[in-house]
Write a structure and sequence with these properties.
The protein is an alpha/beta fold. α2 runs parallel beside α3.
């Protein structure tokens, strides 16, 4: 029991302690030249609510605000349990202004109650939620296609097929957000 409590405390301190920023540089031979050096700021599993309270979220917001990003991507689990928890994200993330905006997908925690309400609340804060959808970002006549998949209702990974609607058409470098 003590070992389980110890590991749980360590895990919570690691997950919700001071932010850890890590920069990763990726190269792709087919990336359009207009997007060379494109910077994506990725956040995931924020879980605003009982574990990630306002103090923690403010720390994370300050850590992200000074990063020079072209796009902010939220990869799901914005909240822990309740749609109202999205309000805790408003102030800490207000100073983050990537050139191409904010896009995200919903995770399993975001759909516990009502994913449509969570998506609407996030969109009210300037996010574009790509629930099984896509969008294009254009620069210099070249395109970056973002395709988002919401957390599947069916938890069986063998039965899952990406339902992108509308299917992105035309040329462009494709990035899937899951």
């Amino acid at each position: 029991v003590l070992l389980a409590v110890g590991f749980s405390a360590w895990g919570l301190a690691e997950a919700y302690g001071p932010p850890r920023r890590e920069e990763v540089q990726l190269s792709f031979p087919d990336l359009p030249q207009a997007f060379d050096g494109y910077r994506i700021l990725l956040i995931s599993d924020v879980h605003a609510g009982p574990y990630a309270g306002s103090r923690t979220l403010r720390q994370w917001g300050r850590a992200m605000a000074d990063m020079d990003a072209d796009l902010l991507v939220g990869a799901g689990d914005f909240i822990s349990y309740w749609p109202q928890e999205t309000e805790a994200l408003r102030e800490p993330f207000a100073a983050i202004h990537p050139r191409d905006g904010r896009v995200g997908v919903l995770g399993n925690h975001d759909r516990y109650r009502t994913s449509m309400e969570v998506a609407g609340r996030l969109e009210n804060q300037g996010w574009r939620i790509l629930t099984d959808g896509s969008m294009a970002i254009e620069r210099g006549g070249e395109r970056l296609l973002l395709m988002g998949i919401g957390h599947p209702e069916d938890e069986d990974p063998d039965s899952f097929e990406p339902p992108w609607h509308p299917v992105p058409t035309g040329p462009g470098f494709r990035i899937g957000i899951v």
